[in-house]
Structure to design on (327 residues):
C-alpha cells in the first residue's frame, strides 16, 4: 500500500472573499493538513478577520483548526483596508453566524515561530494577505527563514498592471516594507502575482455548477462572490471575479497548474509613485541571484474546474457527514 502523508500548511490570511475561497479549497484537499490560520489586517480589520476565519472554519466543520490574531496594521505605512472590494465585514453579502469558538491567545508571530521551529523543514506557509505577520516573525526569530519548508505568496504584479495603484498589487502595496523583508529572507518562495491570478476569473457559470448542492458552502460562496463580482464589474469591467488566493493555495500541491521562472524580484519602498510595485530582473542586469520562483503562466480552465470540483466534493462530504450524524 502506498503511504501518503499530507503536506503540513499554515495559512497567513486577511479573510477576505477570495481568502475564504482559499481556506475552503484547503479544507477540501486531502493533499493538505491545515495546522492553523494566522490572521493579518488587510481586506478587513484584523479583529473582523479573526471572526471571519472562525466562522468559515465552523461552516466547513473544521473548528478544531487553531486561529491566531496577528498584526492590526502595516510595519510603516498607514492602515489600508478594502471595504469596496470585500465589503465592510470582509465577506461581501455573506452573513455567517457568529462563531462559537475563540482564537488562541498567542500572537500570530509567536504561533508561526513556534509551529515552524518545532518541525524544521516540514511546514509550508501560504501567505495570502499583506506580509506583516511574517516579516515581524522573521525579525523576532531569524532562524524561521531556515526552518520554513516553502512559502507561497499571493502578491505582486510583475508584468501586470496593479489592482490598488496603477502599478502595485494590494498585498504588496499595503505593507511593502514587510514584503521587502520577506522577499530577501532566504525562504524558498513561490510568488503568485496578478499576472496569473487575473487570468482566473470565476463566473456565474461556475457557480451554477455548485447550485444544485443543498449545502451551505455553495450558498456562502454565491453570497460572498456576488459582492466581489459587483466590484470587478464596476471598477475593472470584468464579468465575474478574480480568485487570487485559491490559486496560490492550489499550487502547494498542484504545481503543474502554472509555469514558472526563477527570478530576482524586489519591491519598491521608496515612497513615490512606484510604492509597493514588484519588479523582476528578467535580463540579469543586477547580477543578483534569483530569490524566488515566479508563476507567470497558468492553465486557467484546469484550475477553475479543479476549484469547482473540490468545493463540490467538500459540500457533498459535509452533507454525507450530517446525514450519518442524524442516522
Ligand atoms: C489580493 O488582495 C486581496 O484583495 C485578495 O484577498 C488577494 O489576497 C489580491 O491583490
Ligand atoms: Ca487575501
Amino acid at each position: 500500500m502506498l503511504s501518503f502523508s499530507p503536506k503540513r500548511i499554515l495559512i497567513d490570511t486577511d479573510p477576505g472573499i477570495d481568502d475564504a475561497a482559499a481556506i475552503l479549497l484547503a479544507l477540501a484537499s486531502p493533499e493538505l493538513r491545515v495546522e492553523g490560520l494566522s490572521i493579518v489586517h488587510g481586506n478587513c480589520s484584523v479583529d473582523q478577520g479573526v471572526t471571519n476565519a472562525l466562522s468559515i472554519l465552523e461552516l466547513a466543520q473544521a473548528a478544531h483548526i487553531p486561529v491566531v490574531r496577528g498584526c492590526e496594521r502595516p510595519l510603516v505605512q498607514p492602515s489600508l483596508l478594502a471595504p469596496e472590494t470585500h465589503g465592510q465585514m470582509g465577506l461581501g453579502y455573506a452573513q455567517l453566524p457568529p462563531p462559537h469558538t475563540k482564537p488562541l491567545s498567542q500572537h500570530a508571530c509567536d504561533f508561526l515561530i513556534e509551529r515552524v521551529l518545532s518541525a524544521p523543514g516540514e511546514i509550508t506557509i501560504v501567505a495570502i494577505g499583506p506580509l506583516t505577520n511574517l516579516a515581524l516573525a522573521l525579525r523576532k526569530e531569524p532562524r524561521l527563514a531556515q526552518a520554513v519548508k516553502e512559502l507561497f505568496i499571493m502578491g505582486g504584479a510583475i508584468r501586470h498592471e496593479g489592482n490598488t495603484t496603477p502599478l502595485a498589487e494590494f498585498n504588496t502595496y499595503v505593507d511593502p516594507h514587510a514584503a521587502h523583508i520577506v522577499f530577501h529572507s532566504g525562504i524558498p518562495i513561490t510568488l503568485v502575482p496578478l499576472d496569473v491570478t487575473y487570468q482566473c476569473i470565476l463566473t456565474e457559470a461556475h457557480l451554477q455548477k455548485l447550485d444544485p448542492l443543498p449545502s451551505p458552502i455553495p450558498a456562502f460562496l454565491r453570497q460572498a462572490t456576488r459582492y466581489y463580482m459587483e466590484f470587478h464589474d464596476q471598477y475593472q469591467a470584468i464579468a465575474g471575479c478574480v480568485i487570487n488566493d485559491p490559486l496560490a493555495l492550489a499550487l502547494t500541491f498542484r504545481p503543474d497548474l502554472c509555469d514558472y521562472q526563477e527570478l530576482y524580484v524586489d519591491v519598491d519602498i521608496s515612497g513615490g509613485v512606484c510604492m509597493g510595485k514588484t519588479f523582476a530582473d528578467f535580463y540579469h542586469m543586477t547580477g543578483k541571484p534569483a530569490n524566488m520562483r515566479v508563476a507567470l503562466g497558468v492553465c486557467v480552465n484546469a484550475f477553475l474546474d479543479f476549484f469547482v470540483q473540490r468545493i463540490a466534493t467538500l459540500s457533498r462530504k459535509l452533507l454525507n457527514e450530517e446525514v450519518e450524524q442524524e442516522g
